[in-house]
């Protein structure tokens, strides 16, 4: 978790998961926009901003340090190349629940989605 102010004008790769159906995930890359109260992700494709929830004043995002990037770059799962390209251009990675997944966002295959957090249920 990170101070939302640090995400302002920074590149974020977001993993969005459907509330109640965690393996159903999609990804979006964009830029953070912090107005002092609310944090939003401005998608690269020009779609409507996506609100980023705050938990105890912190955003559900983490800095993509060289060590974290290396871990992702070693992935051989389906859609790994899309993940690598997004990680290459992002400064942070975030993950949060949404009531509905944007239809324009990039799909994440189930094996990769389940790998994000060990113990997630499989279908």
Q: Describe it for me?
A:
This protein has one domain (4-115). The protein contains three helices and seven strands, in the order βββββααββα. A hairpin with a 6-residue loop joins strand 3 (39-43) and strand 4. It is globular. By secondary structure, the chain is an alpha+beta fold. Helix content is 20%, strand content 35%.
> What's the alpha carbon Rg, rounded to whole Å?
14 Å
Tell me what portion of residues adopts beta-strand conformation.
25-35%
With helices defined by DSSP (H or I, 4 residues minimum), what is the helix count? 3
Q: What oligomeric arrangement do these chains adopt? A: single chain
Poorly predicted runs are 117-123
The overall pLDDT, averaged over residues, is 83
Give the ordered list of helices and strands.
Answer: EEEEEHHEEH
Shape descriptor: globular
N/C terminus separation: 28 Å
Q: Tell me the count of domains.
A: 1
Largest sheet: 7 strands, mixed
**Helical proportion?**
10-25%
Structural class: alpha+beta
Q: What is the count of β-strands? A: 7
What can be said about this structure in brief?
By secondary structure, the protein is an alpha+beta fold. It has one domain (4-115). Helix content is 20%, strand content 35%.
